[in-house]
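Appendix C reproduces, verbatim, an entry submitted by the partner laboratory led by Prof. M.T., so that reviewers can inspect both the input and the predicted structure.
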Amino acid sequence: MKKLLLITTAVFSLSVQSADFLGSSHNWNDGSSDPLKAAIAIATAENKKAKKAGFEWRDTGKFIKEAAKVGGAKGLALANKARLQAIDAQKQAKEQANAGPNF
């Protein structure tokens, strides 16, 4: 029983130490380590959801295109701004789904 406990503890310790081997910049979702590409992909996906709901905001697509064009930290900020706008547009679509005149 002691051997099993010792082996389990050793394996767990080694797995915890090697868990941070790739660093924090690696994105497990798309296999890319480029944060700008990942942010643009996420913003584009969220904007597609907003467009499907019929509530795509005017500047969201412009921000995504500009982020791809500019690159760097400014591009990352624009992509994150576009993602947040797309999420807000989806929230607006849910809130406004039953909007109509109140008599």
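Residues 5 and 11 are 10 Å apart (CA to CA). Additional entries are available on request from the coordinating office.
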